[in-house]
User: Fold SH3-like domain-containing protein from Erythrobacter ramosus.
Amino acid sequence: MQRFRFFSTLGLVLMLAATFMIAPLSAQDRTLPYWASLRYEKVNMRVGPSAEYPVTWVYLRQGMPVKVVRVREGWRLVEDHEGTQGWVASSQLDPARGGLVIGAGLAEVRAEPSTAAAVKWRAEPGVVTKLKACRTGWCEVDIAGRKGWISAARLWGSDTLPGDE
Assistant:
């Protein structure tokens, strides 16, 4: 009886371990490219897909969108809004979509997805947003708890990519 308990417990532990190992592998099956955002305030970009490679850039913008263009084990080759590419550990990325205000001058954040809608406020280029939804050239955004609509042309991260869900 003691031996049966040992083997049944061992089998249960092995099944749980396999479940936790298979789930991350299935996340890598996502079609490339796709959008993600930086999970933490400080994220290192490296030359190659390992902590052994040197850091080429340090991002200090939690929520900033990046385009994932390649996957290798626990690492993602990402591209930022300036076209810079490098490797980031997958644990440093959040699957939630973000946006980055781009272009010259202030971007108008409107009450509705229309140029006729009231302007609620204006956002400077470089402001990081949470993207709620994009449709017909407009994206609903959340900037530090304030919600509104910005022209999709003024947001890097608004394009629909093959791997987006």
In short: The chain has one helix and 14 strands. Residues 16-28 have pLDDT under 50 and may be disordered.
